[in-house]
Amino acid sequence: MPTTPRPLPTHRDGTTLDQLVARIPLEQRVTLLTGMTSWRLTPIPEIGLESVVLSDGPVGVRGTGETPGETSILLPSPSALSALWDPQRAREVGNLFAREARRHGVDVVLAPQVNIQRTPVGGRHFECLAEDPLLTAEIGSAIVGGLQECGVAACLKHYVANDSETRRTEYVSEVDERTLREVYLAPFEHAVREVGVWSIMAAYNGVDDGVESAPMTEHSHLLRDVLKDELGFDGTVVSDWMATNTTVESANGGLDIVMPGPGGPWAENLLAAVRAGEVSEDVINDKVRRILLMAARVGKLAGFEAPADPAGLADVEADARIARELAAAGTVVLARPEAGIPEIRDGESIALIGPNAARTHVLGGGSSTVHPARVQEIHDGLTEVFPASTVTLSRGGDSRRYAPTIPVLAGLTGFVDASGNPTVPGAGIVTVTHLDAEGGELSRREMVEWEGWERITDPRIERVIVETRILLDEPGYHSLEVGTVGAHRVLVDGELIGENTRPAGAEVVLDSSVNNPPSIVAKGLVEEPRVAVLRAELGVIHAGGYGDFVRAEFRHRTPSEDADLEISAAVDAARVADRTVIVVGTNEEVESEGWDRTTLALPGRQDELVRRVLAVAPEAIIVVNAGAPVLLPWLNDAHAVLWAWFPGQEAGGALADILAGRAEPQGRLPWTLPGDEASVPVPHAVPEADDRIRYTDGVHVGYRGWLRAGNTPALPFGHGLGWTNWRYAALGEPRWEDSGAVEVDVQIENTGARTGREVVQVYLEPPVQTPEGERPVRWLAGFGAGTVAAGDRATVTVRIPARALEVWSVADAGWIRPGGTYRLAVGPNVTEVALAAPLEVSERR
């Protein structure tokens, strides 16, 4: 049944949205349906419509990039938020996003991402919330509610079955109807029915649901029939950026807005299609009405009541404190002694070790990137919280694919003396020369800082030459690299080391190679100090709605970067320190939009580093700084292991708060941690040769697949030890609601030495298999949490929604509830059943 319509905004003089639509000429109506820019919709002053502004999420509101130096609060990765299993905290994050949106002048935040973590190698796994549809739906809808109660639209993404990055604009997800309904559509349905999300993003991929096989930007069955007609979605469907490739099909298929603009497949083409009768004017009017409704909801349509703003004004410092609290609370304790996490005392010497200790990776790669005003590194956090301690830092080898970027060339050692005067003529200066198509020079300028790219606004510019000098003053082998995409020639000291004559366009943005451009490498032995000249001759990348730009990242690896020496130095530091903290993990080169991982192993020699340090410091605390699962072959040998995610801008302080015993790491895994790659139910995310990804795992996604196969992971879904211990004391009688939902009371006892928070997880096991197909061995039905003082007991009430007992019947084209005796399985994770009881369920169709 369609959801009950929600109250709509009303105009102060009674004017309806349909009346406003009728006042707009056809040409303006069609223009409104394509972005005016990459981030703005076209205003129509004649009816009081201001430009609606969109911005990326989901770890912060980046803004539009129209203001130089624009900064944003950077929160922990979305999986870290799900690790709290706390919808109220998620709603507060939505409030924070709304404050940030208002600070940036943004009306629509492209978040949250509620795709299911089907495989751990998925490139955007870290941006998603969980591998379970119920947990994803609850946390995602809470974020939506937090945004929209403050008058800022959430744009839920990516609709639907968009779970791989490899060839993401080409592949078709082949998903049977039942699986689609029970797993992949579930978070979208929940957000539409329960909180009334105002916008949804249509994904790059296609979907074959057995009814229709089409790109999601023109999938009439899933956009129009299911989303709008059946579920009652009254908001806008926005295309992912440059995802739309047709005019008539996408317009008739249910898409409302094409982004970015100007131009694209609609614009004049859509106007012509309307005049030719290929797209009806009623279809156009429906899209315009939806945009006006969204504008009214966010306060961009005159005459309608301004949206409520319970979030108040943005307080950057207060929100930074929230970011720190979230990063600490979302951290998951994978392993620890029975007595709890061993705290560090101020004054103890600390050996801080690891590539992710030398540089904390606070977010993954791709469009979720935001630019915080500051990032607190782990070293800085430890020195803040432990001022009397001596903290030594040992990288223990590099784990990055490319050499370090040279960020500020004028600051390189040897380029300037103590007075700031250049010691090498021309060194530290970047010369940028703009050329036209014939090679004629249009302009030239010298810079002391090169950010690795330049946006091109002069249409005459077709080539750009970027040249700089680097002082090589350390004897040994140096690696000089230039990372670039598109047509280029790269020279070192006048010698050509790399060339590509093929021009590039929007594809380098869509596959994210522009974010981490591959290196052209020159290696050489330096015996005496000398200056090397790097020159990149670049063809301008014409990326459509993404604009025109060039990309050249200068990189340099020195001879002192010797992994053997660095690992040995780290071992020596651990041997003499009172306490040792090892930080390993991934980075944005590994986890990013645009590509999928090919391995779950930690990059570089990090596993070797951990084992060698543990040999001399067996009580070392190991911190994993990663967004998605990685293999931890030393897990069972470690004293204490914390999973700290991509922790956001307050990484250092959050970890230090945990190590000092100031903040409990309350996280519980929202996914399964594999112990090996061979046992992973869906081991890769690569489309088959016919550009299809077949969801043959059906409803057995994530931990359900592990249970079905009978395989044992390193750690199960829901695992997390916190800093105290728990006993599950009693399970109450189930209480049925008229809606078909069930409530159960679970009594827990804190048997540890300090106040803590426990997440109570309730799973269901089926009575028999249904005619609709195999059901999971066990699935999450509900969860709740309680904060309890040491030695005390508390009762946690867990609500099991009616949908948790239902399956999608293809024959009935609807939800049914199979009857029988189910089993309630209650515990701290999916495999550890502490309490169990039967649940008698009557059939309902």
From TrEMBL:
The regions listed as transmembrane in this protein's record are none
Which residues, by range, are in coiled-coil regions?
none
Please give the PROSITE patterns that the UniProt record associates with this protein.
GLYCOSYL_HYDROL_F3 (PS00775)
Is Hydrolase among the key words of this record? yes
Query: What domain of life does the UniProt record list for this protein's source?
Result: Bacteria
| Keyword terms of this UniProt record | Carbohydrate metabolism, Glycosidase, Hydrolase
* Family to which this protein belongs: Belongs to the glycosyl hydrolase 3 family.
Q: Fetch the PANTHER family from UniProt.
A: BETA-GLUCOSIDASE (PTHR42715)
Put simply, this protein is called: Beta-glucosidase
Task: Identify the species of origin.
Answer: Mycetocola tolaasinivorans
